[in-house]
Queue: 4 jobs
Job 1
Amino acid sequence: MNLLIAITGLGVLCLMFEIFNLRKALVPLVILGLLGALALDISEYDAIIKSNNNMITVNNFSVAFSGLFIILTIFLVALSHNFYEKHQTKISDYIAIKVFMLAGCVALVSFQNLAMFFLGIEVLSISLYILAASNRLNAKSNEAGMKYFLMGSFASGVLLFGICLIYGAIGSFDMAVIEEAGMSAAVEEWFYIGIILVSIGLLFKIAAVPFHFWAPDVYQGAPALTTATMSTIGKVTAMAAFFKLATVMNVNLPEAQSVIVVVSMLSMTVGNIMALRQANVKRMLAFSGVSHAGFLLMTLLGNDNPPATLLYYSASYALAGIAAFSVILYVCKNRDNEDIVNFNGLGKSNPLLAAILTGALLSMAGIPVFAGFFAKLMLFGQVISAGHIALVIVAVVNSIISVGYYFKLILAMYTKEANEARPGTPVLLYATAIISLSLNIAMGLFPSVVLDLLT
């Protein structure tokens, strides 16, 4: 609870900077504030704290994922300095929205009550709706914001209807009562219907097939930094909340695992096949995110410390995403689109950023030395031990397919001639790209540092 209060206070402070015209100090002070929040989060490790009538429970799961969310938000705030340089009068609003969004993310891994869960997911969703439509003079941004708002509102309605059915069946929002009901054979039938509806709402949030149709258009139309936010912290948060709900509910539905296997297979296959056809980098990464949603869903099937595997995979994917989007922001600045042709010759004109983008894409594809390889290796081992060999075969085939579209971008950087020189060396952008990829490589070399957090 202390972490939520601190983050919310930092968000209010961001708005105060606008009042006192301290915009130049905004980014460094917010980063310092987030580092303080990270220290506060670390101080609660190995403690179990229940507060507000068991609405929120702090444990190692919530502390580990909250730490990841704070680190990702620090990177996103750092990228904001260069991205919003033409909108200095609104930068405090944009950063404040990201900080408030972080509060929703923390609530989604700390909840012990479905009311707090819904509050967290709405804070996250509303922040992303606003950010998606934040470029109000751009028709594509307006379209992306409206499309995401309408589809997201529908998903939230389905999710809320599911929560109502669960409450109607057992008379409580408390997760401990729900866990007991999930193991009972005497619970009302609409309890299971409620769980199915809640699951559908969350599958929409993580853009898993067949609830992924909004992602390509929204990712392409939204401002690039908003796309980075949705594809990293947005997706990872929704998956962490889904994992927590799935493990607590522990429902006696024999078909549940079969459904997860089918959705996972479809997400990986549809995402990768559609990504092969894309010429726009943001749209390609949208379909890549759909395929990674399939891999993330596989963590629900593991039987050997799946929370640690989910944390490791989420961190490796999100850090690679931050590194990739840092380069995309640099290359596509002041351009009308994010097509692959914009990256032609980047290996010659800017070898450092080309190497960073290559490393990020190789991590997403699951190539050693990067953390993405070890994340998939551990995930496949757990799923095989759980008896889902066919799913692992499909996952391996899809990992090979993904190399095709990632290398399409890599080849454009190193084999094509540059379109034009790209002046300027934005320090925060370079620092974010280098640090995020370095953390990804460090996770690959020392995976136990992250895995031991949830042992």
Note: The beta strands are 49-51, 56-58.
Job 2
Amino acid sequence: MRQLSLLCLLLCSMMSTPVEASPNFVVIFCDDLGYGDLACFGHPTIRTPHLDQMAAEGQKWTNFYVGASVCTPSRAALMTGRLPIRNGMMSAKRRVLFPNSNGGLPASETTIAEHLKTKGYATAAIGKWHLGHKEQYLPTNHGFDSYWGIPYSNDMDAVKGFPNYRQKSQEDPNYYAPIEQYQVPIIHNTEVVELPANQHTITQRYTDHAVDFIKENKDKPFFVYLAHNLPHIPLYAGEKFLGNSSRGIFGDVIEEIDHGVGQILNTLRELDLDENTLVVFTSDNGPWLPFETHGGSAGLLREGKGSTFEGGMREPTIFWMPGTVQPGVQLELGATMDLLPTFCSMAGVDYQSDVTLDGYDLSGLLRGKSKTSPRDRVFYWREEQIYAVRQGPWKAHFITAGCYGIGPKKEVHEKPELYNLSQDPSEKYNIAARHPEIVQQLTELAEEHRQSIEPVENQLEK
């Protein structure tokens, strides 16, 4: 009888103990958003109330990086947790994939979505892909159950005979091009369903697809990868937002994206999924500065898209998961490559293999269980070369060049430049002469890292 009573107590205890649900993940990934383009990161005239609230309730990361300073390689880094030099997704000849490219993310690479599928996650890719537009490279062949979006940048498939966008954008902060100028398709799974994409409505439609997917999969774990193709030029905004921002059409675009973030967060709250969903907001690289008011701002950071100065690769980043992510401003180092190991760790996925990963598990920092990031270094690759390396506050430049289209020409430094980014985030004061031992340390670190790179087939040059 005593044994029967104990068994009953044990069964009751097991029944009353709630089973912890697998966390959901939402990544909202902008295109060419600068470090200084959000109100919560210091912009004085662009209103981003939903992102501001997200930052107040979550963690605002001020030292968060991408794997490259331009679209394709940066996206490959996020998806695989690996620097793009390791999987052929970076080139000195072709910076990104184009409509006439034949390559893409190799099938041998394992994406975040593929890892999460092993635990039964529903997965959706929405928005700009830019990791290969041939069918074998599309999201549905890289772990995603569904895909709806454009396969590459929104300025591709341009048609001749229209006004020069760069010239017009420099003349008018509110200019937007005819939709017909860019014959970019919208693809649903593997089929073209719209040509050209109506880019005036595309931001809201991306948000609608994300909200619908969340509602449809509310009873199972899910991963949403929402990659906005804006504020990459050409800029377009929906009717409700066009002309609303004093910053011009660029501000209209950001405020519409912010509105969409609010819709997604509100959906999670309404479905009681907010405390079980990690939402990450960041961008693929810095602002495209040659387009002046149609490009963004890197704030106090130097240069922009295409460069390995901070303005090209340090991104405004927010993590949000009420009750799990400890609110505050996070000064530690992080990078988009860290999302894969972080998500897998939180989902209970064994992601370790014989493949070299460049990401670190940040879940301890997010939960407030650790004060120190497992990441203490950042490697700045551009066009198949290490241009710079950061360790702690110290950053050494071995090669420098301006952002695409403007800025200083490429210079290989016989004596590397050195900056203390904690004290000089704008990289104004080269202090290499005062700290030769730090320069030597970083030079050796870069060389050690370079030796870890094995040659692979270049996908961007196919």
Note: The chain has two domains: 24-367, 377-451.
Job 3
Amino acid sequence: MVCHRCPGRFPEEAEDRTEHVSGRVDPLFHALTQSQRERIEQGAWYHSIELPGGRTIAGLIPVNALRGRFEAFGIPADLRGKRVLDIGAATGWCTFELERRGADVVAVDCVEYEDFRAAHQLLESRAEYLVLDMEEMTPERLGRFDLVLFFGVLYHLRHPLLGLERVLALTLDTAFVESYVCDADRSEAERAANGAYMEFYETDELGGQIDNWAGPTTNCLLALCRASGFVRVGLHYLQDRRAGVICRRRWDREAMGAAAAPWISAAVNNRSGQPFFDRAKDEYLCVYFKSARETLRREDVRVELGGFGVPVLKVTDLGRGQWQANLKFPYGVGAGAHDVRLWVEGSTASEPFSVTVGAAREEAAALDESVPDLYLISNGTAPDAVFRGHRNEQLVCWFRLPTRNLKSNQVRARIGAEEAEVAFLTPHGADWQASVRLPASLAPGEHEVRLRTVNSEWSNELRLTRA
């Protein structure tokens, strides 16, 4: 079964074919798709291909329409030094045009196109050509790419959001996404007011093809791109039932300023309260931070993980300058340690807070009898060591210890006469930060705080106040 792609025509070739029957068969799209299918079965190429000497193999999609799509996206004319992935390459015009512009290109489709092979030979192309399904495309298998083209593929997928997450994991900078949208016949105002939903096609309702599964609204397509993990998503064109969206992985640094940076007190897995994440699980990141800003919207907060932006889903004011940001942990993050940084609009970036993904957790090192040097304690939600009984309060302890491989279960805290659990432990240069849950029975008054490792004596004493 051949996955025929969405029609690739732009205004200079396209007739006005805008009738759409919501939730049912789109009759004109159906007729157009069937016509293309018949021509392909009779031997027509899908993309037109330009050959040396000014010759062209005429295909269903004219060269000026294919070039018009590149222009609509603003794809750079000079791609030297860039690695680019073309998902859904079909006959290969995009692949060969990217290569002509200087890129190192990998082309992928779910079936092998003999026409691509023939054009590849005629053009003496060096592009790599692979036949893979979306589920087989991983950074471990393909590496990562500066740019990714994802044209006419999304609506062929049974799980569109998972497909976009795969695209995110393969993208270092920018992905260009084009898809069929089910509300292209509506006015701009109607589309803006329309919801973010998808039509589901159980059999061959879209175009008479059984591999067309979903038709998102324009708003839904944009929302899917954001939900997959891209932080800057913009609609760049809407033409002939197709929407073109540019998706970027990194925040715009021009929104930074000179204001004081936020301070991250913790970045943890919302299930465990620990800074560890499992690649095989659907997990969420909670970032606790302090900011001098009196008000913050979700749109004001920028979080980065390993240098890539991560969309913020919710920001909560915890009081006294303490905030909580909730985020979906991105798909495809590699095993090992990764720095979380945060900034708000107009500020500089915070110091990093390290989280660990997958099996990269090392076994705890054997400890000698060195005693922690406890030099600072504070309330995680306030700048002092006064605790007022609020639900989100945690004791933050800063200490020095001559080891770089220490785990939270190797550290003990004592508050007054009671031992307390170390919730998580984070290295900061040569120092350590331990976050400790206060005993619920802690009485008002002053209490000594001490730390030790499983092999050491108790540390020096600092004091907190339970108001």
Note: The first helix runs from residue 27 to 41.
Job 4
Amino acid sequence: MPWIFLFPVWIAVVGVALFLGFNRLLCRTLNGSTIVFHSDPEYAPTLAEHEHEQWIFINGVAVGEAWLKSNINRLALTFKRPIIGVHNQPSGIIFDVIECLIQRQLGLATRDVREAYKIVKEKLYNPKYSKIIFILHSQGGIEGGLVLDWLLQELPQDLLSKLEVYTFGNASNHFNNPHRSVAEQTQEKRENSTAAADAFTRTATEPITEASLTDSPVETQAPLPALLQQQQQSTAAPQVNELKSQAQAKVEQQRSKPDATATAGGDHDHLDHPTRIAVPAAHRAISHVEHYLHTYDFVALWGALHFVANKPGSPTLPRFIGRVFSRAAPTGGHQFSQHYLNGMFPLARDESTGKFVGCADSNEFMDTVVEIGEVGVNGGMREGLQSSFAALRRDAEALEAAGVTVHGSFCKPHEEDIRDGNVRVKDLSRLWLYRNGRSPPEIDGDGVVRGLTL
């Protein structure tokens, strides 16, 4: 504000005071009186099949109360689950950017960060919930990263395993998701060792079989990993054995159906029922972390994309862990609903009424063939396409070469979902499998059946 020096000091002080007062009054009007919001039941009523889940969202900069409600209602309509919104209240775009920089560099915990931490921690400790979905946008990625740092320091692994994190236009400079043990970390670092690769392949490739997408959040439609079969012989895991029996019974019941992947109308649409489902990164504290970014989004450019696309100059620099989907589209901006959700999870209309009824089962982004990232995606710092792609292949050589972070997958033998033999975004995106109330099969890398209460 160079013009301020052209006036006497008292005029400059009065001008600044008037600006701050008007800005505060405007922001208070936009923010409302509360910080926690819930999506409207008309977009996603509470259903019994989703009672074990809790979805939580933190917004980005310059989002008032009305826009936050619009965001969580949009999420509710897309995924057919009730959403809790923690309001990152704006203070004006200039002050929001300043706050972003302070939070990002110094770890400032504002009121909404503390509130989000309280909510997520309470939900993780609540035995009613077996799955907590944490969705973050823009500055919300910074705040959510701070929440995760606290949770990783305090919570036991069996609670952290409930958590899944999905970010859009992430402005953070780090995203932690450590290994659960030194042995697992060392094994990944020795990915170029033949002996380590051989041992790794024996677990990563067993089994690879068919597992169709299920509309039920508690139904497991895939044979259980060998590790869970070994647990059956242990007297210390009677509850897990019971879960195995229940899950295997559901598998046999599913196999007895004429066509497990047919749609309600009898059509065999590979877009409606994808069968390539990646098992989570079993050696990480949080099994599922995905980042969705636009290369034309300036916030993503100085945020997540900077740390994903550039080779780190030192192993001590902040790490950015998680599977990254970077979309190069000139129409891709930074707004959550307008650019990210409309571009990656667009809505479908009812032909008779013209109203939005949920997420469209096909779109350009999800049908896009993925490409291998160049710099910064290798070496165990994050889940690059090489490891993700290798996890979708049958041959052990690909698994050995990539040092797979996502351990194995359940593949359909004839690859009907990928007509031309290429891997598409929808084949790697776990969040896509939640659209319209659906749920992916829930077996984690250690053979623990998720979605069922112990």
Note: Residues 36-178+275-437 form one domain.
